Amino acid sequence: MDLFNEINWSAVARQAFDEKINDLEFIKKFKAKSIVTERDTLEWGKKLNKSLAKRRYSV
Q1: What is the pTM of this model?
Q2: For a surface tag, which of 2, 22, 23, 48 has the fewest beta carbons within 10 Å of its beta carbon?
Q3: What was the pLDDT predicted at 5?
Q4: Do residues 25 and 33 lie in contact, with contact meaning Cβ atoms separated by under 8 Å?
Q5: What is the pLDDT of residue 59?
């Protein structure tokens, strides 16, 4: 950070915080409307990981 004195690091951090808060608010609203359970998402994640691993290691 000392290498780039001209950058307003407070503004950079504030913008990053705002973006993260917006992302979390979106996720919260999305989850409120969703009928998908945590178990469903874990199952999908396992299937996706297996599929990606198969694709990666079959090359």
Answers
A1: 0.54
A2: 2
A3: 84
A4: no
A5: 63
Quick check: is 37 in a domain? yes
Rounded to whole angstroms, the Cα distance separating 28 from 34 reads: 10
Identify residue 15 by its one-letter amino acid code: Q
Q: What is the mean pLDDT of the chain?
A: 92
> Which residue from 22, 20, 16 is spatially nearest to 7, judged by alpha carbons?
16
Kindly state the tokens that stand for 10: 């407070």
Residue 2 included in any domain: no
- Higher-confidence residue: 16 or 6? 16
Instruction: Quote the DSSP letter at residue 7.
Output: S
In single-letter form, the type of residue at position 30 comes to: F
Structural domain containing residue 34: 9-57
E-strand ranges in the chain read none
